[in-house]
Structure formats: structure tokens, C-alpha cells
Amino acid sequence: MDRNELIASRTRFKQTRTDLFKSKTVIQCVIDGGSVMSGAKAALNKFRQLVADRSDIEIKVVGGFGAMWMEPTVFISKPGNPRILYGHVDAARAEELFQRYVQNDDPCKEYAFAWLKDTIEYPDYRWGANEELEWRGIPHIGTTDWGRLQQRIVLRHCGDIDPESIEDYIAQGGYAGLEKALFEMNGDQMVEEVKTSGLRGRGGAGFSMGIKWETVRGIKRTPRYAIVNGHEGEPNVYKDRRIFEGDPHSVLEGLVIGCVATNIPEAYIYVGSEHPLSYKRMGKAVEDARQMGLLGENIMGSGFSCDVKVIIAAGAYISGEASAMMYGIQGARGMPRVKPPRSAEAGLWGQPTLVNNVESFNNAPVILLKGGAWYAQFGSAKSKGSKVILLNGPFARVCMAEIPFGGPIRDAIEVVGGGPADPAHPIRAVQTGAVSGGSFPVSMFDIPFDIDEFGKKEYGCLLGSGSLTAYTDQQCIVDACYYILRFNRDESCGKCIPCRVGCEGLTEMLWRIKNGDGKETDVAKLDSLAKMVIEHSICGLGQAAPLPIINMMFVDEFKQELLQHIRAGYCKANVCPMEHSPAKVFEYGVLPDQVYHKDGRVGYDYALPGASQ
Amino acid sequence: MSLMINRGNAEGSNPQTSIEMSQALAIMERYKTWNANEALVPILQEIQHDFGYVPDVMAALISEQFDIPLTQIYGTVTFYSDFRATKKAEHRILLCEGTACYVCGSQGLQRAVTEKLGINYGEATPDGKFILERANFCFGACQLTPMVELEHTFYGNVTPEQLLELIDEIAQSEGHEQPRGEH
Is the peptide bond before A394 cis (omega within 30 degrees of 0)? Predict the structure, then answer.
């Protein structure tokens, strides 16, 4: 299809969609990897069974909306009424909603969370941009705590379109960015636009995407490749898969725009194997786009050719690192290599390669359409735009949301996340960057949400992939720190010694402390070993793994907790086993002559069953 | 590994039937046009999916067909967490150990399983029925902490008692004895 055909079909698809919402009751079920586990399929099947013979009701599947705490979620939109979001819709509630709202006229206020429009066109992608009124007692999503701060640029289509339908995507203005890239701009202008936007890579390192594109564009060597890095093996990070599941075409469009700007004819989308729905939907998106002529030879008659292959990863957390990922595609062990040369110079098969995260690519269509300057007005001085955040653990609202940079992180925790799940256990710290960073205690909640502010060396924290995990008085900092080190030790590829041996040493020391065997000298040892590992590791894993220890030494509150473990053999969250601490020794009935008193604490020499690692 | 291959179908290794071999050849046939190195991971994935592990003979077969060094295949198989080089137990108890699951109770689940079945992470019961594994990634449903995958079904908000019940159910539904009874 050429450009005019695309524009014509966009008008047509848009009309079909508008007519659908005007003439029929539309039930949209959120089906993504996480909601399926909460039983979203049951609700979907119930609705399908109920409307079997009704032609005035349409059931649609939409991608991950992000309201995970009340999954399974469903949107119901009746002609003339706004789209209403319902939470906790199991089969029974689906039936009740159907009878009370779809067949009658009671919008079931008690189950409704909020109402929203059936388009993505909120000013600046902000639900809260205009003060919207209540509709029959149901608030607008822009006035709810969860919605009012959000700016959904990356997630603009998530929960709105059917991810397996290219028509839906085109109807909502899809592939207009690619059109602009192919016919109205040249490569330099595109790179300039992305540079103006100030967009920084969303994979964790935070390198400017514009500069990356410029570097690749500047290198003329062929063949050259582009890769979307969607390998997300980190615990508590699921943003990339939700984007794949909710809006695969936007990733594809962003990728092709990147290919046009840097003149690359061959691209890969690397999807983690843990996310079956992601690669199913992404694969379908690529097939559909190819059939429509938006991919492949001579895209839209512009003379530019680009083909995309979806590659499924094979596990291993470290394969998400850019250079390791490329070895993975080449069928080798996914071990990172020493940089420079950067992947822009020597990437896949040693050729120039453009690698960006899913979220970064997903921003590209909007930046081209609205302009880099528009994008740059959001966020803080050095971190522009908005970032997808993931709130996990004992939050009242465990969710995926997108908020602009710049505000205090208190906003994310207390407004979007709604504070602690149980008010009796207030949040005392948040873990940053999933397993590659330390935690912020309550006293530091006013730190701005910003890549550089988070990444200050002394804090030992990282924004990383934007995951925040809450800790209350039921979670122990030493235990969490041990967990992170243990994870990184397991996932270390073993190529460079500081990480391979250092993480093992740190894990072992923390294990001892957890079991009540800590020594006063361990504190200094932990600190110096952590610094050594950070300094000498070659890749991001080793450089980030010991950060929780740096963080524990920096934050006095955490350090006191560590010392409490060592000196008193006491874990105030009652999480650590503390099997060798005096109380336990007494319980196991150790003979008095086996107990020694040393450095003001009581210990004994015999290992207990199950204590060794 | 190479020793095993020389022995072919001798006792000790896992013998492959000719049907299985032709099945594997059919998989490889589909990747004939691919760049050999690029095809390696997808082929291994299909073999892993069909057989539950990557048998030595298959690795040798890939090496022969695609002219990839056996060491590289072995390296790849042992590096990625999706591949298994040896046959594993029938039922996998996969505990999610994302940060949220960990701090919200997956340790308790592990302790319960270890106590009941006598296996730690990465170990299988002597009768080969159960293996306990930790998921070093995230299931992506952090509202349901802690999570367990058993028999391709995900269970959320699991308590140790519920998990032990599930294990009992699986053990009983197949007519096996109670895992604990025989020891």
C-alpha cells in the first residue's frame, strides 16, 4: 500500500471504530500475561457466552492497561455513555455487570473505578489535563489518585486498542509517524528531532537516544542492523512485555523509524522467552504489517526497504545486556564484552548496530509527530518525557503507570501507588531499579524522580527499569540486600572475576549475618568488596549488583539495622533465620561449654542442621 | 558429553527412538536456509520444547547438520536457563522469586516444600516425580505475590498450606503414593 492508500484506510478504519462505539455496546476485556493469571479469561468467556446471539454487543480484547491491583479489569462502553473501567471482574461479577448495566441501565457504581473517553486524544496524553466531571457518581480517571499524575505517552494505546488488530492501531493514528519519516523528513532531521526531545534510553543506562542514532548514522559500514531489546529477565520488571502485549505496532513503527533515520535494512526484535503472549502478539504485528506493505520491500512506495525478524530469547538475565544479547542472537553464550567499541560501531556480527529498549523505540512515533520540542517540555532538566513505573510489593495499588520525570518520588509512592496496602504497616523504604540498586528510606522520598538524581553515586540507587518495590516493617533490609546479591550471583555470567567471585563473597557474608553469625569486621569488608566489584566489573550487572550495600552504608537507618543483625543477632522484621543467635542456641539446647562470649556477644562453634548454604 | 555420544544408544544415556530422531531432523530441516549460528537457539528451543531437554544425540546431530562445534552447542545449552542438558523430573514446582514475591513470602513456600519433599532449589526427589526450581525472573503478575507455577498453571497468593495441598493432589491424582509415605 502506498501513502495515499494508508491515509484513506486510516480514515475508513477510524470511521468504523467511531461507528462501532456509537452504535454498539462495547465490552473490552484486558487480556495480558498478568491478568490471565488473575482469571481474566474466565470473565472474557463469561461475556462471550452471555452475548452469544446479540448483534448489538461487541466483545474486544485489549492489552495491559496497568491497573493490576484490581485485575481482571473490563471496560464497558454503551452508546452515548462514557467508557467505564470495572475492577475485580470474575465470572460472577461479569454476569452481574451484564445484567445490571448492559441489559439495564444501572452502571454498577460500586464496582466502577472510573470513566474515560474511548480515544487516546487527551491533551498531551494526560488524563488529568482537563477537570472532567463525575458521571453518575463515577469519577473521571483524571481525577482519581491513580490517574491524575499520569502522562501516558508510551502506554497511550495500552488498554485502548486490540493489540492483534492493525486496523485498530491505524485508526488511532498509527503509522503516521513512519509516514512522516519516509516522506517529509530526511535522516538528519529525524536525528535532530530525537536529539531535541532529550529522550534518554529507557533500558537502564540512560544514554541519549538521539546521540546513539547520530553515531550509527555517521558510520557508513554495511551490512548494519537494528535491534529492539525486549529481553527482560529482571524480577519485578514487566514493562516491556506489557508494551509488547498492549501495543506491538507502536514498537514496530518506532523501530522502522529508527531504521529509516539510520538507513538500516534489517532489524530484529528480541523478546524474552518468559513472555509467550508478547512474542505471539509481536509476531502477529510483524506479519500484519508485512501484509499491509508497511514492512518489507519498498515501504509505502518510498523506495526504502526494511525487514524485521522476531527472535525469542532463551532465558538468562544477563542476556538483556546489549552486547550479551547480540551474542545470544549469534547462537553463542550470552556474555557481555568489554566496551568500547560500543555496539553502534561493532555490534551484531561485528557490524554497526542500533540497539534501543522497547520503551525508547515506543516514544519515537510520538516524537516525530509532535516534535522534539513538544516532548522536551515534559520532565526535568536532564530527564525528559515520561517513564513507565512499576509499583510492586505491599503497595495499595500494585500497578504499571507512566508519570513524567521531575516530581518527587513521594508522588509515585503515595499518590499513584496509594501508600501501603495495610495502613498498620506503613511503607518505610522503596527498592529502586528492581535488582540493580538500593532503597530510598522515607526521609529521602522528596528526591526528584529523575535519572541523574536517582543515580547519584553516593546513594547507591538506580532508576533502572523504573520498578519500585515497597518495604514495610515486615520486610528486612538485610534480607532484601541478600536476595539481590544472591540473584546477581546466580545470574552472573562468570566472565569477569570481580563479579563472579565478589558477588559470591558478598552473598556469603550476608548469609552469615542473616544467620546470626555476622562479625563486626564484616561491615568494612562488605563496603570495600562492594566498591571493588563495582569498579572492576565490565558490564552493568557487576556494576549494579553491589549497589544495595553501598546504599546500606550510606543510609544511616539501614546501617543501624545491619549492625543490629550483627551485634544483637536480632532481625526486627523477624525475617532472617538467625539460627546461630543466642536465642536460637538456647532453643536447640547447646551445652554451656560450647558457648563462648566474645566481643560482647554470645556465639557457639557448631553448625546447626540446615544452616549451611 | 562427547563420551556419551560415542556410546550412542548404550545403557546409561537416554536412548532416542528413531521416531524422535526423525522428529528432530524435521525441526532442523526448517532452518536449513538460515545462518547456522542464528538458527542454533531457535532449534534448541524447539527440541527443548518437544523433548523436555536437549539430548546429547540431538546436540551432536545439530553439530553435524549445521557445522557448529559441539562445544559451542554445549556452551549455549548450559548457559541459558531455558535449556536442560539432562532429563528432569516429571513435575516442576516453580516458585517465583521476584523481589516482591521474595519479600512477600516465597521463602516460606520454599521452606515448606523442602520440609515436605526433602529437596532444595534445583534438586529432584529420588523417585523423579518432583523438582523444585526458582524462577529467576518475574511472572509479571506482582499483584498476586507470592506465585507458584505447577503443571503449567499459575497460582497466586499461595500460602504454604495451599502449596502442600496442591503437591498432594498432584501426587495422588496419578496414583502415586504420598511422596512422604515411602521414605
Answer: no
Q: Contacts of residue A429 in chain B, CB cutoff 8 Å?
A: none
pLDDT for A613 beyond 60: no
Q: Is B94 on the interface with A (CB under 8 A)?
A: no
- Residue A226 to residue A295: CA distance in whole angstroms: 14
Across the interface, whether the CB atoms of B138 and A272 are under 8 A apart is answered no
- Between the CA atoms of A175, A181, A184 and A186, what dihedral angle is there, to the nearest 10 degrees? -170
Report which DSSP code applies to B124.
B
CA distance A40 to A47: 11
Q: What is the pTM of this model?
A: 0.89
Cell, residue A115: 470513566
* A330 contacts B82? CB cut-off 8 A: no
Cα distances (angstroms) measured from residue B151 to each of A124, A162, B131? 45, 30, 12
Backbone dihedral region for residue A392 (phi beyond 0: left; psi -120 to 50: alpha; all else: beta): beta
| Residue of A333, A348, A439, A489 to mutate, testing the B interface (most B Cβ within 10 Å of its Cβ) | A333
Q: What is the pLDDT of residues A92-145, one digit of tens each?
A: 999 999 999 999 999 999 999 999 887 777 888 899 888 888 988 999 999 999
Torsion of CA A442, A445, A446, A448, to 10 degrees: 160
pLDDT tens digit sequence for A23-77 = 999 999 999 888 888 889 999 999 999 998 888 999 999 998 989 999 899 999 9
